[in-house]
Write a structure and sequence with these properties.
- This protein is 43% helix and 14% strand.
- It has 23 helices and 18 strands.
- An 8-stranded parallel beta sheet has the order 1-10-7-6-5-4-3-2.
């Protein structure tokens, strides 16, 4: 019995959720590990779905890859968990249901610190283990990343020509991440070797129907749909879904009318949902015609006007200075704006504002950036960190930055909360700086994080951070290269206090096309120097600099002048190799960085004239 042959004759019914069904019954940790630890539980769930009318049973192996199992310390058990999953499913299916070996997507929108090679190796190990137990085919489900799905299909096809169902998860109706239309995604999956293509998870029946109604029927295209029960909700700390089998009965008939050949359920669905699907469509003939909704062609997304010359272009042709002036911790802002204006008058091309640096709350830098534009002539450059906002908050923040007419941003991961004023606060880190850069570049194409049109392209010039004060500069440069691949337009470094570091850094990065602003932070006291050297991650002072500051004793004015002289000597060396200087203002002492900005502009102008 071949699943494709049966699909030509009748609508097949799939099973429902495994993970959320077990979760509702009080199970936690790794659901896939139950294949080995408590097989009777998994066997019972398969039996319930089969009895409800499922023609297609999935193995309990969705997250049984070594990358996801590592969370539970079970990466070494991946093979046995997968093999057991197929055996249990086959015991229940017998000759009356198809057994599809399930492989879940690994990459999502959230941060994932694994390489492409590690993902491929995890898929290969899982495919080998599953196929060795003789399933009827493979089910790929909840793939947010199209390239990853294509990779998984390619690996399966190295082993077998068995039926493959490849289901993607959509960020928005009809659109995958990266703005890929569903029709295009299905075409690529089919060309790669998928026999059945479909949608699962993330959306309920309504949104999946909306996604399918624009697709015309194709004789050689088999489609599956496994919607969630509903949008998830929370009750007393637990994820819950609507219990709506009657609704599924109705929507299953509509899915059939859209040309779907296999209908099952994903998160939140139960045997009752599958029984409703079976009652509605089981055994009925596939439709041979449908009314396709005509989509009005989307107008090209316009470019937003860019009024300012890009900082990465400026620094390629002349010495450029940007100055960091942290937003104040208290509500008095007069001194801040006085400083921003003075820095502009001194020749700074932009004034940068950190995003709650060192995990200490300050006045929101977006608000300060907007006020800076109205109260001064300074150009704001905003740091955007990953620590304090989830993906929803990050996109909202960036949309707001664009709406305010601010185009300059620095993508940073953000200092951990344990170093700041609220060490017990939660860190979000939905994404890291690499992914944030990439997401901002998506917005520059007029697409949201989930692939939906924004109606307009943002105009962000995206800076990325670089720390040259590391033991292995070569390894740090490789991270730079990854950030360039992600879309970084230029780099801003941590402060440097070693004159020899400028040449060393230049030699290490001179092959890169992306310009760099090197950081210099004037010191104001010996205490300040020792704190930076010993307690601030990423900053290292030389013994000579520390001795010079220590020699000033408690004389604050002398220490401040010495700090400026040290900064000038660093600047003199830095401009031999770099056009970009990034000055960090200490303790709102904008008079210090204004003096240094004037020094740089005068010195380089004199040098150019001569």
């Amino acid at each position: 019995m071949d699943i494709k042959t049966e699909m030509k004759k009748r609508i097949l019914v799939g099973d429902g959720a495994m993970g959320t069904y077990l979760y509702d019954q009080g199970f936690s940790e790794s659901f896939e590990a139950l294949n080995v630890r408590n097989p009777d539980v998994i066997r019972r769930v398969h039996m319930e779905y089969h009895a409800a009318g499922a023609d297609v049973l999935q193995t309990n192996t969705y997250a049984a890859n070594r990358i996801k199992l590592k969370k539970y310390g079970l990466e070494g058990d991946a093979v046995v968990i997968n093999k057991s999953g197929v055996r249990l499913c086959k015991e229940v299916a017998g000759d009356s249901a198809f057994v599809m070996a399930t492989i879940g997507g690994i990459k999502g929108v959230q941060r994932l610190d694994v390489t492409k090679e590690e993902i491929e190796a995890a898929f290969r190990e899982q495919v080998e283990a599953l196929w060795s137990e003789g399933p009827d085919g493979f089910m790929l489900e909840t793939f947010y990343d199209l390239t990853e799905a294509l990779t998984a299909i390619g690996i399966i096809r190295e082993y077998t020509d068995c039926p493959v169902i490849s289901q993607v998860a959509l960020g928005e109706i009809g659109v995958m991440q990266g703005g890929i239309p569903l029709r295009e995604a299905f075409a690529q999956l089919k060309a790669a070797g998928a026999d059945i293509v479909g949608i699962n998870c993330r959306m309920g029946p309504y949104h999946i129907l909306r996604s399918l109604e624009t697709l015309p029927l194709q004789e050689d295209l088999f489609i599956s749909a496994y919607p969630n029960a509903s949008m998830p909700a929370f009750d007393d700390g637990r994820v819950i879904f609507q219990s709506n089998p009657d609704y599924f009965y109705e929507k299953s008939q509509e899915l059939r009318a859209q040309g779907v050949h296999l209908i099952g359920g994903c998160c939140g669905t139960t045997p009752e949902h599958i029984a409703a699907i079976a009652k509605a469509v089981k055994g009925s003939a596939p439709v041979t015609e449908k009314t396709t909704v005509i989509v009005t062609p989307v107008e090209p997304v316009p470019d937003s006007s860019v009024q300012l010359e890009r900082l990465d272009d400026i620094v390629k042709k002349e010495v450029s200075v940007i100055v960091e002036l942290d937003p104040p911790k208290k509500l008095a802002t007069k001194k801040f704006f006085e400083g921003a204006q003075l820095l502009h008058e001194s020749g700074a091309h932009a004034v940068t504002m950190a995003d709650n640096s060192l995990a200490s709350p300050r006045i929101d830098n977006v608000a300060m950036g907007a006020m800076m534009k109205t109260e001064t002539k300074a150009r704001p450059l905003l740091h955007v960190g990953c620590r304090d906002r989830n993906l929803i908050g990050l996109q909202s923040q960036l949309l707001g930055i664009h709406a305010l007419g601010i185009q300059d941003v620095l993508a940073i991961t953000g200092d951990p909360t344990k170093v700041g004023d609220f060490p017990g606060a939660a860190s979000v880190y939905d994404v890291n700086s690499f992914e944030l850069i990439s997401l901002m570049k998506e917005m520059n194409e007029g697409r949201s994080f989930s692939g939906k049109s924004l109606g307009e392209k943002t105009s962000f010039t995206v800076a990325a951070a670089f720390n040259p004060n590391v033991r292995s500069l070569d390894r740090a440069v490789k991270r730079l290269e990854k950030k360039i691949t992600a879309g970084a337009d230029y780099f801003i470094t941590q402060p440097v206090y070693d004159v020899d570091k400028f040449k060393e850094t230049y030699e290490a990065i001179k092959h890169l096309p992306t310009p760099m602003y090197v950081g210099i932070m004037p010191l104001v006291s010996s205490r300040n120097a020792e704190f930076l050297h010993n307690e601030v991650p990423g900053i290292t002072l030389t013994d000579d600099v520390r001795k010079r500051m220590a020699a000033c004793g408690d004389d604050r004015e002398k220490a401040a002048r010495e700090g400026i002289e040290i900064a000038k000597s660093l600047i003199d060396e830095a401009v031999k190799y770099f056009n970009g200087i990034y000055l960090i203002t200490p303790f709102l002492r904008y008079d210090v960085t204004a003096e240094l900005t004037t020094y740089i502009r005068n010195a380089t102008t004199h040098e150019i004239q001569n």
